[in-house]
Amino acid sequence: MKPRSALRNRPVSKQLDAADQQILRLHQAMVDKLLADSSGLPAIYQRLEQRYQAGQLRHSGYIHWHSILDCIDQPALFRRELLDNGERMRKLRRRTILTGILTEQERLSLLYPSPDTTPIDN
Fold first, then answer.
1. CA quadruple 106, 108, 111, 115: dihedral positive or negative?
2. What are the distances in angstroms from CA 104 to CA 12, 26, 94, 111, 119?
3. 59 within 8 A of 103, measured Cβ to Cβ
4. pLDDT digits (tens, 9 = 90+) for 37-74
5. What is the 3-state secondary structure (H, E, C) of 20-89?
6. Exposed, middle or buried by CB within 10 Å (0-12, 13-18, 19+), for 35?
7. From residue 12, how far is each of 7, 69, 111 by CA, in Å?
């Protein structure tokens, strides 16, 4: 029997973990915006369909995204599912369909927050 490759069970690299944390912060903001105003939802469904038809998304990913979007009327469930920290959802968020929700300024301020300008007492 051939031994299992050590690469399969490798822990997530620090760089990938840091990227996942940034992506999660962006998705937290996107969830908040979508729950406050879901008028962009038809465009998101359209993007989902386009990616699926173009072969950029597997059937299981398509179904997963669809089921999450379908529960937007249940905010706690929508938030929980979209922000789930499991490996499957982390992979889906890396190639998110939720583009165009945040403005460039919102995105940049989440990725590169300005340092706190309040003085520190010594």
1. negative
2. 29, 11, 18, 10, 29
3. no
4. 999 999 999 999 999 999 999 999 999 999 999 999 99
5. HHHHHHHHHHHHHHHHHCHHHHHHHHHHHHHHHHCCCCCHHHHHHHHHHHHCCCCHHHHHHHHCCCCHHH
6. middle
7. 11, 28, 21
Q: What is the pLDDT, as a whole number, of residue 77?
A: 97
Residue 114 token pair: 């300005």
Residue 111: strand, helix, or coil: helix
> The whole model's pTM is what?
0.79
Q: How far apart are CA 51 and CA 43, in angstroms?
A: 12
The amino acid sitting at 101 is I
21 token code pair: 């944390």
